[in-house]
Design a protein that fits this description.
The protein has 13 helices and no strands. By secondary structure, the protein is an all-alpha fold.
Amino acid sequence: MFSWNPRFLTTRKIPPPDAVGAIRTLAALHQAGLSLPSLWAELARDPRYGDTPVAVSAAIDDGVNPHDALHSLTIDADGPWRALGACWAIARVSGAPLGPALEVLAEALDDISRTKRQISAALAGPKATMRLVMALPVIGVIGGGIGGQSSVGFLFGTGLGAAVLALGVAMMFGAWWWLRLLAERATPDPAALGLEMDLFAIATGGGALPERAQELVRAVCSEYSVEIAEPQTLENLVSLSRRAGVPVAGLAKASATLRRDLGRTSSEERMARLGVSVVMPLGLLVLPAFVLVAVVPMAVSLWEGSLA
């Protein structure tokens, strides 16, 4: 009997490495008391975490210092791994506990990762509609040829057809660019995470003076290419701490949490608008392009046939 297997109709996509999950596991294993070689060896056994833990574990097995191995393998890696390297470096220099710092870092990175997934889900419907509408002109041209209407000859053989085709392709490209721009505007700014605030809290929590902590955070963020929203923010926190007489580490943690909440709320508001905004490129560019490429050649061909 004929058996239907849907696996032949779907393409399996390899998921990207779960760097945030690796950082969470790293924090849990570190607080459980595992040594650094055992910690990275456990992460390397899980294929979900990608190649970075494998490379770090292999370097440690070759006799490289764990801190040096992490530094060399994360300084030019993706954003979450660079943030891990910066957090690890600051905790090491300042003497702050690494486990709680890694948990805070994982929560901050998880916020922006969740927002990006929500944006991708919001764009899935309009993108599928756009791909379908972009295929309709080709189907219309083929259907016109089968029905005896020379749409291909009009589009590629006449000056008016070439102009219509060029305008339709330009409108399709404009719609693609418009949707991409809407998605980029809805994506939260990485600087809105307030990671420099968390790193500053880690440095001051380890006993570093505020001025020394500022220099350390700026140097490490520059080294690991971690974005800083406003350079004056740390100085304002130090001034507020001295005027109010409260620990600056607590103010930095509260400021980082507040910034992430504001950034998440702003991203949710932009995503709510995104569902309405994506209709504009579809209605103003994609559908008119379909009319130009598929309907106009058939209409011209029918009109020429009626005159003949």
